[in-house]
Amino acid sequence: MDRYIKRLFHVCITVPDIERALDFYQDVLGLQSIGSLRDERTDGAVLGFPGQDIVIHADHLCGTQTDNATVIDLVEFVEPKTVADDGPYDQTNHVGITRMAFDVDDTDAIYAKLGQRDDVDILAAPATVKAPTDGYLRILTFKDPHGIVLELIERRGAPSD
Amino acid sequence: MTLMTQQLLHVCIAVPDLNAAVQSYRDLLGFKSVFETENGTADGALLGFDTDVVNIKAQHVMTVGASPRHATAINLVEFVEPKTKSADSAPRAMNDTGLTRLALLVGDLDLAFERIAANRSVEIISTTREIVIHEAESTHTSRWFSFLDPFGVFITVTEAPRNDERKE
Question: pTM (2 decimals)?
């Protein structure tokens, strides 16, 4: 068959307040914004709002590896507004996009930063596990300020690096 | 500020039937499996459960030709115990808080639309449209369409944008 897809281009996170979200994703996770839109008015059909214009704020975020990287498209809906009532899926076994994992340099350093905040929920504190292939992984999972389940994975050569 | 995060490693999609999901992502979208696991003792806390262990089956899929060290994988997971919960309401709207959408980059948007729209298990949300993005220094036009995959995941598809005009 034709291999017509090149790559996963971005993953979209919808948030109620983009500045608060940037505070978290940039300052805590250390991601950087590589493009920013404010009050962008666009055709809503592609995003499931046929026949109407939508207005959004958006930032594209990536980590230190930028070459052909899949970016996070952080979006605040201005018109219609972001719906915050139900929040994301409460459990990771709900059908759909439930979790994102990041490759990080230092899981414990980010864990220390999370400990200074009262708007995150730690699901599993950092633990070292044997990787399915070579080496070990230092893994932490938590719910971010929006309730999204995030996983941080640091690759280690030995269990106690 | 120190940049601590290197890259988005994978995005997880929970599905009710792993084999059906892998088949869809392979046959419909051209992904290939790069890692497979059946784990009856996966760490429950790590995945947000109250129980010590959960039973899962998973495959990581990537676009063909992608470098496993640099590309973001899609982690398709079937929960065996507890089972994957079905969608109990209408699909998520794009302005609902949380992870709402995946975007795929293709070489030929018209070919991609033809192939995807021909599959009975997907629902086309929007046929191809031109979207104009006005940035501070330039205007980009890109073409997009969108669909729901067989599990209700909202996916938008685009090809490389054109730079239309540069503002002085």
Answer: 0.85
